[in-house]
Amino acid sequence: MPRRAADQADPERRSTIRDVATRAGVSVATVSRVLAGNYPTAPATRAKVMRAVKELDYVVNVHARALAGVTQKTIAILTREVVTPFYAYIIQGVEQQAAQDGRLCLVCTTGSDPDRELAYVKMMREQGADAVIIVGGMTETPEYRKQLGQYAQALESAGTKLVLCGRPSMGPDVPALIAHYDNEGGAYAATSHVLSAGHEQIMFLGGVPGFTTSEPRFAGWRRALNDRGIDPGPELFQTGSHGTHFGYERLKELLKRKAFKATAIVASDDGCAAGAMMALREANIKVPDEVSIVGYDDVPMAAHMWPPLTTVRIPAEELGRTAVRMALDPRANPARETILGTHVVVRESVARRVR
Amino acid sequence: MPRRAADQADPERRSTIRDVATRAGVSVATVSRVLAGNYPTAPATRAKVMRAVKELDYVVNVHARALAGVTQKTIAILTREVVTPFYAYIIQGVEQQAAQDGRLCLVCTTGSDPDRELAYVKMMREQGADAVIIVGGMTETPEYRKQLGQYAQALESAGTKLVLCGRPSMGPDVPALIAHYDNEGGAYAATSHVLSAGHEQIMFLGGVPGFTTSEPRFAGWRRALNDRGIDPGPELFQTGSHGTHFGYERLKELLKRKAFKATAIVASDDGCAAGAMMALREANIKVPDEVSIVGYDDVPMAAHMWPPLTTVRIPAEELGRTAVRMALDPRANPARETILGTHVVVRESVARRVR
DNA sequence: CCCGTTTCGGTAACCGTTTACCGCGCCGAT
DNA sequence: ATCGGCGCGGTAAACGGTTACCGAAACGGG
């Protein structure tokens, strides 16, 4: 039964550098140096050590190593959840850039609970992560701002970077790097795209007033309209929530009340656009022949809807990469705030307005 | 300038338990005990300590703590990528269960590179993670099997659990827990659903022969057919790849060659089904009136396609939760292998065959 | 008043590495 | 032959916690 044979003592114990040293007949220092490879060692010694390592199946203990000063650091990413494509892409970007820079990536979901978020921030301080990246919005109560600001300062003084990703700056009270995207510009571009197809009655559908992700989209839509001298009436500004359900229900209700007068819709998000399209289809209104529609986010689904949805692309993965680059290499990325561009990807849900 | 005032010495240094002890006028043991809260301490002492902690903004060093024996352990999840819904949901499940059990969750993407996967496994051994969960398939070269088997044994003897999630067992050579789903059963159910709508010419579209995720789906389709005494010809078995692109191209080509004879399609995945639907639409063939179609995976997109896609639901998030439960609580989950059920979610892409 | 208990706090060993510092032997240069 | 320097390896001191063990003080019962 060789399997049971473990070198006496507690068989569950990981073998340590001392075990290796004894076995190889050298000192622990030598083992450490051989393994680190940054110190001259005689080939014969090296061989002995390597053999012992193999035989004992030795692996370093990262905690001990960290204590002694060489830290394998990590990047933490705090997010509400992971399945929404926007978050998923950011996470992927973060993970990949982190890996590329030799870091491990800790992901923590916070739901929409500010307390969990705060708890994780604290935990990351204990871990000694070299960056914590908070992605997406959180409803910002004053209490939350205050706490986060406090933690942000603590992190900063501990050398841990805090990056807000896909979320605007929270002002000077919370010192953080910002990796964001041009939200307002995307809405402006989308609306302009529809405008130049000849539409004038352009509804904005979806979004929730006060939300940091919604407001800039409202603003972009409004600015594009104003730039052409159009002042949209309140009936063209339909907000309340987002997602497929909201888009469907709201449009259905408008249709039923015969209160839908627009020839085009700028939706707050692709889900909302999809919902609106379903309602239109049920009412036998052709998209894009009778009404044009553009979404926002460019989720994978957008390309597969019918008709394929024209929408605004957010460089989510790049956002994640940018966040860690800013955190890890401040000299190459000295800006405290970088805003990535958005652009409209043209598919088939917008048609020229015929009169 | 009180902010600059840091207690002499290097201002960048994290304050240690010793700093706190000095400041509070007690010993380090006392501080440790107050913080752990598992030892009787006089209220006055506790108060002094807490004040010092606050003033110095002290946080424990997890590495030191781990070295001393109290490990904050972590769960590692190794995945190809994070954005595919199947993976994203598993990750979410893992993370949430891990958090619930007080663990941190490390996610590592491996692309489809076995070497990176292996490297991460090794790294996790160094970290002393209490479980590593490998999700999804990897093309299994003998070399890879051998390596992984070796690591698996090493992990096991170190008390770290290895869980294969959403992937079948690799045999006795690689000792691992399995959290999988009934892949073959899903395909069987989907095909049966189509059969009982009166179809007999049922094509299987997509998947790659030899892949651990594809083969069971082929098998389920074939078994369902055989159970009704149907022996599908090779022209009804169209494999090669998966995803929208493949589905679209292959079906288009079949249509062009007038080689498409089926009245229903069982697709290897939802993307593939979506592609097929696009090709059908372009050929002016109505779904589901003229051909029925069912997908696999139930990605979010499936519900939003037109017509909404009937498909097989994989309990991905639950799969992730199960994986960590199995790893963390072997007494409550003694099985070395748990297979979660799949079921078909009926939407509108399958219609009764009219003759 | 004495003594056994209980309550609370300190001392110091230990966890597994890394690395500064030192010493030894050997080489080539003088 | 002597010596400076270099190549190589060992000793031991951190790193920042936890906790076994011990002792002092307080307290209550006889």
Q: At the fourth CATH level, what is the homologous superfamily of the largest domain in chain A? A: Response regulator
Q: Please give the domain count of chain A.
A: 2
Oligomeric description of these chains: homodimer
Give unreliable regions of chain A as ranges: 1-10
What is the CATH C level class of the largest domain in chain A, in words?
A: Alpha Beta
Our count of helices of chain A gives 12
The chain-level structural class of chain A is: alpha/beta
Task: Give me the count of strands of chain A.
Answer: 12
Helicity level of chain A, as a percent range? 40-55%
Summed up:
Two copies of one chain form a homodimer. The first copy, chain A, has 355 residues and is of the alpha/beta class.
Q: Which structural traits does this protein have?
A:
homodimer, 355 residues, alpha/beta, six-stranded parallel sheet, four-stranded parallel sheet, 12 helices, 12 strands, disordered N terminus, DNA-binding
